[in-house]
Specification:
The structure is a single chain. The chain is an alpha+beta fold and 135 residues long. Helix content is 19%, strand content 27%.
Length: 135
């Protein structure tokens, strides 16, 4: 797919970086004015609740976020803001243990909140904003 360019208007991209066809209820990547916005990503675990693990869920979610940021034409070092939603605040330390491995050069500005529940049996959902590198 064609990565977003900082000089173009609002571009809605699918998860392959191609222009969205307009039928998506939620667009995974929106690019505008040198910035990409990545929609919230969850783990969508289909196993029994007793098997859900915050480390595994965080890895799954961060891998999805990383892929979308890269598909949009940027990288994790250019993530400027990130929001984390936890189904249980008790998972904060477990999420952080995995989360920090994705940002070896320092993490972005971040907000973390606990919520009543997340869709898809996810223990964590993450969205982010990343700058597009200058060409």
């Amino acid at each position: 797919g064609k990565a977003a360019s900082p000089d173009e208007g609002v571009r809605k991209l699918n998860d392959e970086g191609k222009p969205a066809d307009g039928t998506q209820f939620i667009t995974p990547i929106v690019a505008h004015n040198g910035v990409i916005y990545v929609a919230g990503q969850g783990a969508h675990d289909e196993g029994p609740a007793s098997s859900w693990d915050i480390g595994k869920h965080t890895t799954t979610v961060m891998d999805k976020v990383k892929k979308l940021v890269e598909t949009g034409g940027s990288n994790l070092d250019n993530v400027v803001q990130l929001s984390v939603f936890l189904a249980k605040i008790e998972d904060y330390d477990g999420m952080n243990k995995v989360f920090k491995t994705y940002f070896p050069h320092g993490g972005p500005a971040r907000t973390t909140v606990a919520v009543a529940a997340l869709p898809g049996n996810s223990l964590v959902e993450i969205n982010c904003i990343a700058a597009l590198p200058k060409k």
